Structure to design on (140 residues):
């Protein structure tokens, strides 16, 4: 279907508990990476934002394939106005694939600290699910 899009996730949406809370469809996914960006912490939050950083190391994430237009709208709602959806190239098993991702819209809301996936999973995920995710999950 022409309205389906690939989505590269690099933060909270990499975690199935968050992804399933936001979208309705069941999508195939794969580990993927992107280059030319940096994943930093959002000020006063435990989740990340993506910024352009041409010399940064690759970022590992999860690529979801053929996401429906309806679920893209749900993702836009979840990401709020603090993020802008952009098109980029994600690499899966050495092959570049066009994908949408959410880039920070306001760098003043960010820190200069790299976001840590393991720390988030161990201590931030439960808090995230009960705060940000509840507040920003689209209505049914």
């Amino acid at each position: 279907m022409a309205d389906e899009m690939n989505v590269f996730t690099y933060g909270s949406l990499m975690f199935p508990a968050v992804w399933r809370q936001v979208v309705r469809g069941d999508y195939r996914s794969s580990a993927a990476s992107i280059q030319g960006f940096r994943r930093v912490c959002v000020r006063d939050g435990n989740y990340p934002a993506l910024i352009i950083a041409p010399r940064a190391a690759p970022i590992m994430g999860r690529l979801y394939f053929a996401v429906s237009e309806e679920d893209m709208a749900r993702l836009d709602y979840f990401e709020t106005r603090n993020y802008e959806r952009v098109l980029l190239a994600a690499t899966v098993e050495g092959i570049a694939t066009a994908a949408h991702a959410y880039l920070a819209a306001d760098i003043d809301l960010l820190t200069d600290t790299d976001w840590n996936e393991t720390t988030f999973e161990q201590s931030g995920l439960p808090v995230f699910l009960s705060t940000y995710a509840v507040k920003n999950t689209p209505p049914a």
